[in-house]
Amino acid sequence: MEMRSKEFKSRAVYYIHDGALQKAMGMLRDGFVAKRTQQAAELPEFEALREEAKNLKNHILDHLDHYLTRYEAAVKASGGHVHWARDAAEAREIILGICRRVHAKTVTKGKSMVSEEIGLNEALIENGMDVVETDLGEYIIQLADEPPSHIIAPAVHKTKDQVSDLFEEAHGTERKTTVPDLVNEARQVLREKYFRADVGITGGNYLVAETGSSVIVTNEGNGDLTQTLAKVHIVTSGIERVVPRLDDVTLFLRLLARSATGQETETYTTFSTGPRRADDKDGPEEYHVVLVDNGRSKMLGGRFREMLRCIRCGACMNHCPVYGSVGGHAYGWVYPGPMGSVLTPLIKGLDNAYDLPNACTLNGRCGSVCPVKIPLPDLLRELRHMQHRQKITPAIQRHALTAWRFAATRPKLYHFGEKVAARLLALAGRRKGRLRKLPLAAGWTDARDLPAPAGKTFLEQWQKQRGGQ
Question: Which residue ranges does UniProt annotate as crossing the membrane (predicted)?
C-alpha cells in the first residue's frame, strides 16, 4: 500500500465532508462502542483480565527470544517451516519464493494486517498470481481497489448501497439490496476460489510456543477454508504475537472479541499445527510461518516497547473522536487511529507521518479502553517530543513552545500574560461575542468561530467565587 500519511490534513478535510462516510462511521460508534461497554459491564472480572493480560504480555516481551525459539522448535517438530523476515521486502521475497516453487496461480487470503503492512498483495499480483481476499470486508475493498479503513472491519466505511453497487458491477448479477443476500452472493463467488487455490495465506492472532500452533479468530469461517483447502498454508505474523502456552490463548480470547466488536467471543477460533498428517481428513501439504520483524525489535529495546502489547482489537480507534470523524483512509497507511498514529511513525519514519501524533486530542479514551492497557496518549506525546527534539516540528511552532515554556515556568509572568490576553480578546469580541479571525490561530478560526473570553481569567473567576481565597 502506498504511504500517504503526509496528506493527513487534506484527506481529513475531504472525509469530514463525505456524507456516505459520516453515515457509516455513525453506525460504527453506535455499534462497537455500545456493545463493548455492555460486554465489559457484564463480565465482573473484565478489569482484572486486562491487568493479567498486560502483565503476561510484559513477561513475553521480557523473554521474547526464548519463546520464539521454543515456537520455532515446536513448528519444526510438527513438520512445518519457520522463516524469519527482517523487514517487509524480505518477507515478500520469502512468500514469493514459496509461491513460485509450487507454481501457484491462485492465492486465497484470510485477513492479515501483517500482509497489508508488507505490501504482499501487490507483490503477488505483479508476479502473475490471482489473489483473492476471502474475508468479506477485505473482499469488498479489494473490489473497490481501496486499502482497509479499520483493522477488524476493513470495509466499515462502506454503506450497504455502495456494496450493492460494487457487487452488481463485479459479478454481473442482479443488484441485491439486503445484507443476507449480499453475504450469500459473496459466499457463492468465493466458494470456487477456495477449491482452485494453490496457496492459502492467513494471519496469526496468536502463536503458541508450547505446541507450535497458529491461532486465528474469524466471524465467517473463511480462514478455515483458506488454510485447509489449499496445498500450501502460509502464516504471516509479527514476532510479538507469540504466547507461552495454550492456556494463555484463552486469556486473550476473553478480551479480544469483547474489546473489538462487543461480542462475547468470535464465531470461529481455529488452531493449526503443522501440515496434514496421514490420518487427517483435510489440511495443507506444506505449512510455513513467516515471522516479521519490520521494526519490532527496535521497539522492543526502546521507549515504545509497550506498543508491542497490542492485540489488534481496534478498540482504540472505535473510541477515538478523530478516527470517528475522518475514518481510516485519512491516516494514509495500513494502521489507522491511535495505534496507527504510534506505529506508522515508528515503522515508516517520524518525518513521513508528522501529522499523525499531532492529530490526537489526548482525551485519553484510547488508553482507557485498551484491553492490554497500552498508554497510547503517553506514547503519542513522546512522539511529539521526539519530533520537537529532532526539529521536525515547524520552526514557528518550536519557537512558540519555547516562549510558552519560558512563561509557564514563571508563574507571575504567566498569570500577567493571561490577564492581558483575556482582556484584549474580550474587547475584540465584545460586539458579537465571538472572534472570526485570530492571529496565529488560523487552524481554529478558519473552520469555526472562537467564543470571546469573559474578560477575566479562570483563576480570577475561581478566586472571586471562593471569596478571594
Answer: none
- Range list for CATH 3.40.50.10420 in the chain: 52-297
How far apart are the C-alpha atoms of 54 and 364, rounded to whole Å? 18
- According to the CATH classification, is domain 52-297 in 3.40.50.10420? yes
Average pLDDT over residues 1-25: 84
d(CA 322, CA 10): 14
Average pLDDT on 297-320 reads 96
Distance CA 43, CA 256 (A): 13
State the alpha helices, DSSP H only, in 130-277: 136-144, 160-171, 179-196, 222-229, 246-260
> Which pTM was predicted?
0.90
Mean pLDDT of 54-78: 98
What's the mean pLDDT in 418-427?
86
Residue 469 burial (10 A CB sphere; 0-12, 13-18, 19+): exposed
Residues 6+ apart with CB under 8 A from 136: 155, 183, 186, 220, 222
